[in-house]
Amino acid sequence: MLRCAVCQTPSQLSLCKGCQTLLQAPEKPCQICAKPLNQSDGVCGECRSDPPAFTKTYCAAIYKAPIDKWVQQLKFGERLDRARIMAEALLTPLSALDKEVPVIPVPLHLSRLRKRGYNQANEIAKIICKQQNRPLLSDVLVRVKNTEMQAELHEKQRVANVRAAFQVVKPIKCLKVLLLDDVMTTGQTLRSASKCLINAGIQQVNIAVFARSGG
Ligand SMILES: [Zn+2]
Ligand SMILES: [Zn+2]
User: Dihedral through CA 56, CA 84, CA 120, CA 63, nearest 10?
Assistant: First the structure.
């Protein structure tokens, strides 16, 4: 019998109805980066003063307890089953996006991928692509710079840290893509990867993240 991944009650989905309420979508999100704002139809200050290369962000939940723990477990604790919660939570928001739009998971640097054994963004993307019948492009974008862990750096260092960190290594034969990661905090990684895709000829980059920090 399938059980809820959090409370273990029988459930067909990875989260039962009760535990689904733990996922709180951002209220009145920024139209571009999904940061929670206090006004509707708004764009946050950062997207206004320094617009990112991406157009829109699909997001399932605000990054806070207890879901921050699931993210950490997927990233560092090898709880690969957490990817299913994150993928399923994104299915409804992503149903609004054209089914032909392929998913590009934010890549890890090869040395980190070898160490960890998997890319958490790719694990989430695999489930979404299977469920929604979307093309998965796991090998078109690579991380060429082995960046330090972003969370340990200050804002200015983070910007410098991810500059030119990505490279498109295969032709991408579509105009729109969905760039996927587990979490968006400062957004610098997703900004950098999006810019790289736009420079490679993609016309529209959309973002999907399981969780968005409140900023
Ligand atoms: Zn539950
Ligand atoms: Zn914004």
Answer: 60
The CA distance from 41 to 34, in Å, is 11
CA–CA separation, 29 and 35 (whole Å): 5
Q: What letter would DSSP give residue 80? A: T
In this structure, the strands spanning 176-184 and 103-105 are parallel
Residue 18 in domain: no
CA distance 215 to 208: 17
- How many domains, in total, are found in the chain? 1
Give me the CATH number covering residue 89.
3.40.50
Q: How far is the CA of 16 from the centre of ligand 1 (A)?
A: 4
CA–centroid distance, residue 208 to ligand 2 (Å): 14
Residue span of the structural domain in which 61 resides: 24-212
Q: 183 forms bridges with which residues in the sheet?
A: 211
Task: Identify which ligand lies nearest to the alpha carbon of 11.
Answer: 1
What band does 158 get if pLDDT is binned at 50, 70 and 90? low
Which pLDDT tens digit goes with each residue over 43-78? 999 999 999 999 999 999 999 999 999 999 998 877
State the Cα–Cα distance between residues 156 and 118, nearest whole angstrom. 29
Does a structural domain hold residue 2?
no
